[in-house]
Design goal:
Elements: H1 3-9, H2 16-27, H3 41-74, H4 83-96, H5 100-108, H6 111-118, H7 125-139, H8 143-151, H9 154-164, H10 168-182, H11 186-194, H12 197-205, H13 210-226, H14 231-236, H15 239-247, H16 255-266, H17 270-276, H18 283-294, H19 301-325
Helix pairs in contact: 3-4, 4-7, 7-10, 9-10, 9-12, 10-13, 12-13, 13-16, 15-16, 16-19, 18-19
C-alpha cells in the first residue's frame, strides 16, 4: 500500500499515550529537516479536542475523588444507614487509584490519612476491608504512596487486622495491603520485621482460611527469595519446624506454597538445610511419600518439583552416606 493510503487509513489516537506516540512518529520520519506545512484545520481541531478530552478527563477523575472524600468525611461514623454510600465511595476511589497519578493526588488531598484514621479500624467490616483494599491498590508499585502510608503508622494496624480481625475478608485484604507495602520496599519490610510480621504470616498460614493461607505462604516465599538476609531470623524462630508441621496435615493444594517457601528457605543456606535434616521432623519420609502420591498427577507437578528439589538439597548426601554404611 502506498504511504499516502496508509496515512489516510491510520486511526487517530484517542488517549495521551497515543498523542505522544503520534508526536514521536512525526518527529522521526527521517534524518533530514522536516518540510513545514500549515496544519489542516480538521487535523488542528481534532488535536485540540483530543488534548482537551485527555486533560479534562484527568481533572474529572480528581473531581470524582474529591466528591468521594466529601461523602466519607461528612457522614458520621455511627450513621450505619449510609454505609452503602461510604462503601461505594471507597470502591470508586480504589478503581480510580489504579492510576498512579490519581493515587498520588488522593494522598495529597489528605484522603489516605482520613481513611487510615477513620475507616481502617472502624466497626463495620465492609468498610474495613474496602479501606485495606484501597491502601493496597494505591501503594502497589508506587513509592511516593508507600512512603506516605508508612509515615501514617499504617503497618502495625494492618498487621493487627491480618492477625486477629473477626472478618475473613478483612484479613485477606489486610494481607494484600501489607504485601504492597513490603515487596521491593525496604522501609516497609523493615517495619514489617520490627512488628514481628513473619510471626503474623505464620499464624495466617495456620488459619482455616484457604485464600489467606495461600497468599501468606506465597508472600513468605517471595520475601525469602528477594531478601535472603532474613533466613537466619526465620530459622531462629522455628519457621522450618512450623512449615513442616503444616505439611503433616491432610493433603491440600496450599502445600505447594509451603514447599515453595521451604525451598526458598534452604537454598544457599546451610542452617536451613541442617534444620530440615533433623530426624524428629521426619521431613525426608514426608517428601518421599508425597512424591510417590503426586507422581502421576499432572495438576500437582509444581508441588512434586518442590519435593524433589528439597530431597536433592537436604537429603541426597545423607542417602549416599547411608548407602556407603550398608
Amino acid at each position: 500500500m502506498a504511504e499516502g493510503g496508509s496515512e489516510r487509513n491510520r486511526h487517530h489516537p484517542n488517549n495521551l499515550q497515543g498523542l505522544l506516540r503520534l508526536a514521536v512518529e512525526a518527529g522521526s520520519v527521517g534524518d533530514t529537516a522536516p518540510e513545514l506545512h500549515p496544519m489542516p484545520e480538521e487535523r488542528r481541531q481534532w488535536l485540540q479536542d483530543a488534548l482537551s478530552d485527555v486533560f479534562n478527563g484527568q481533572l474529572d477523575e480528581v473531581k470524582q475523588i474529591k466528591d468521594c472524600l466529601q461523602i466519607l468525611n461528612e457522614i458520621p461514623e455511627d450513621d450505619q444507614s449510609d454505609d452503602g454510600r461510604r462503601c461505594n465511595a471507597l470502591d470508586t476511589v480504589a478503581d480510580l487509584c489504579e492510576n498512579l497519578d490519581n493515587a498520588r493526588d488522593f494522598c495529597k488531598l489528605a484522603g489516605m490519612q482520613m481513611v487510615v484514621e477513620n475507616y481502617l479500624e472502624c466497626s463495620d467490616p465492609e468498610l474495613r476491608w474496602r479501606t485495606a483494599h484501597l491502601i493496597g491498590t494505591c501503594s502497589q508499585n508506587n513509592p511516593f504512596v508507600q512512603e506516605h502510608v508508612l509515615n501514617l503508622g499504617t503497618m502495625p494496624k494492618l498487621l493487627e487486622l491480618l492477625n486477629s480481625d473477626s472478618s475473613d475478608m478483612v484479613r485477606i485484604k489486610a494481607l494484600f495491603a501489607v504485601s504492597c507495602l513490603v515487596r521491593e520496599q525496604a522501609a516497609g519490610l523493615l517495619e514489617f520485621v520490627d512488628h514481628d510480621g513473619f510471626s503474623v504470616l505464620m499464624r495466617a498460614m495456620q488459619s482455616g482460611i484457604e485464600k489467606l493461607k495461600v497468599k501468606a505462604a506465597f508472600l513468605l516465599q517471595n520475601l525469602l527469595i528477594s531478601n535472603p538476609e532474613h533466613k537466619d531470623v526465620l530459622c531462629s524462630m522455628g519457621m522450618v519446624q512450623q512449615l513442616v508441621s503444616l505439611l503433616q496435615t491432610e493433603h491440600d493444594p496450599f502445600h505447594e506454597h509451603v514447599l515453595g517457601a521451604l525451598c526458598s528457605l534452604v537454598t544457599d543456606f546451610p542452617r536451613g538445610v541442617r534444620q530440615c535434616q533433623e530426624r524428629q521432623l521426619g521431613l525426608e519420609d514426608i517428601l518421599l511419600e508425597r512424591s510417590r502420591m503426586l507422581k502421576d498427577q499432572e495438576e500437582f507437578q509444581e508441588e512434586l518439583e518442590f519435593c524433589e528439589q528439597l530431597l536433592r538439597t537436604c537429603f541426597s548426601h545423607q542417602s549416599e552416606e547411608n548407602g556407603m554404611d550398608r
